[in-house]
Amino acid sequence: MQTKLGTKFWISMLIFGLMGQIAWVVENMYFNVFIYKMFHASAADISVMVMASAVTAAVTTIVMGAVSDKVGKRKAFMSAGYIIWGISIITFAYIKSILLTIIMDCVMTYFGSTANDAAYNAWLTDRGDSTNRGRIEGVNSMMPLVAILVVFGGFMSFDLDTHEAWTVIYYIIGIGTALIGIVGWFLIEDDPGLRPSSESLGKTLTYSFRPSVASENRRLYLALLNFAVFGISIQIFMPYLLIYYEKTLGMDNYVLIFAPAIILAAAATVFYGRLYDSCGFMKSIMPVCVILAAGYALLYFTRTTLPVFAGSLLMMTGYLAGMSVFGAMIRDNIPEGRAGQFQGVRIIGQVFIPGLAGPAIGAWILRDAELISNSDGTTSFLPDRGIWSAAAAVIVLLALLLIITMRETGDAD
Predict the structure, then answer these.
(1) Can you tell me whether residue 338 is helix, strand or coil?
(2) Less CB within 10 Å around the terminal CB: N or C of the chain?
(3) Among 29-38, 189-198, 375-384, 404-413, whose mean pLDDT is lowest?
(4) Long-range pairs, 368-372, Cβ under 8 A, ≥24
(5) Residue 76: strand, helix, or coil
(6) Residue 130 dihedral angles phi and psi, to the nearest 5°
(7) Which residues does 393 contact at the CB level (< 8 Å), separation at least 6?
(8) Does residue 413 belong to any structural domain of this protein?
(9) Nearest alpha carbon to residue 360 among 137, 150, 49
(10) In a domain, 2, yes or no
(11) How many C-beta atoms lie closer than 10 Å to residue 252's C-beta?
(12) Domain carrying residue 237
């Protein structure tokens, strides 16, 4: 019988999950556009920024996830974290260089990862169980694409070639994030079974990195390994995605093409999350590889509106469904009472490794990318379709790795 979670849980999850993802979308997809348009950043500049943010996110989540376990609190870290996270976003309205953007991106990521990656994700793990995990992850994994839709729709009214537009954007997103943190003080409820850890902070920090713990939780660590490969595929193209649509394909109206694909993909993922609950990990993750590969192939071979829409729909559906399935698998295998401590190894698989390897591969693929001249005499690069073939190669590798590693745990049936 499925455990009921209550209206308050779902409202808390939706507003914290959605606002957090809106803030991450602005960072992950539009900071790249920001420094590309305002400071004519190169592919290497974008790669460095994504890498620095990934390192910051991983270190922060390892430390703050363990701290939240030590003190036995999630609500305080979520609410206070969102408030300061919002304030840090506003500071980008006053940044005038690539270097300062990268530095402040790391500062902002510290507060965002404390609030979202560490506390919020540990809270979701605390509140769910094996009877409802797929449903929770189906809704939670829908948030990134709903956030993209919200951001795309909102940004349509702004001229992103002007600094004034970015100033307004950063104020709106920053204030919105901070307000959610304030609401959280009155809405969030910690899990009744959550208690402060009696272990020292040092032991709490290092627990999930012990070889003995990895051996005892083999399914979890193998799932994280595969999740990292999945993430590498996504991060090869994601930092350059909007630039590719707008500049390479010349689709100034890419939002009107992309938005319907996002809506359909998000709707599909709500139902896809339940497939994990009924069919298990392998029977729900292998179709994801096929869907992604098909999307990549369409985007590689086509440049016109309808095929690009179809490719985008498949790519986003595969991305979102994969996040849902991996998220449910990982949460199902985190030991009870240690959700915060395991957010560190989760973020290494989800963000750190993909955030280093994916953008580096993408930058290498684009090392000889075509250059275009800007009106002020500077040049900018054009991402080419090689990002799709590289992403597809990694997905093929993932399918093989899944078959090999999951056989070790008895999941490869």
Answers:
(1) coil
(2) N
(3) 404-413
(4) 369/43, 372/247
(5) helix
(6) -65, -15
(7) none
(8) no
(9) 49
(10) no
(11) 10
(12) 7-407
Are 220 and 408 in contact by the 8 Å Cβ rule? The answer is no
> pLDDT (tens digit, 9 = 90+) per residue, 39-90?
988 888 988 998 999 899 888 988 888 888 888 888 889 999 999 999 999 9
User: What is d(CA 384, CA 381) in angstroms, rounded to the nearest whole number?
Assistant: 9
Residue-wise pLDDT for 250-281, tens only, equals: 888 788 877 888 888 878 877 776 777 777 78
Burial classification of residue 32, based on how many CB atoms lie within 10 Å of its CB (0-12 exposed, 13-18 middle, 19 or more buried): buried
Say which amino acid occupies 159: D
Strands 371-373 and 379-381: antiparallel
pLDDT tens column, 122-138:
888 777 666 666 677 77
Domain CATH code at residue 268: 1.20.1250.20
Q: Is residue 95 part of a domain?
A: yes
pLDDT tier, 1 (very low <50, low <70, confident <90, very high otherwise): low
The alpha carbon dihedral of 312, 313, 314, 317 has a sign of positive
Q: Which is nearest to 205 in space by CA: 356, 72, 345, 73?
A: 345
**pLDDT at position 213, please?**
86
| Integer Cα distance of 412 and 91 in angstroms | 48
In sequence order, what DSSP letters do the residues of 154-202 get, joined into one string?
A: HHTTS-TTSHHHHHHHHHHHHHHHHHHHHHHHHH----TT-----S-HH
Euclidean distance between CA atoms 203 and 334, whole angstroms: 17
- With CA atoms as reference, report the closest residue to 152 among 72, 256, 62: 256
Domain count across the chain: 1
Encoded tokens for 111: 């507060």
Judge whether 412 lies within some domain.
no
Average pLDDT, the chain: 86
Residue 272 has which token pair? 């896809």
Report whether 26 contacts 151 (CB < 8 A): yes
- Asked if residue 321 has pLDDT above 80, the reply is yes
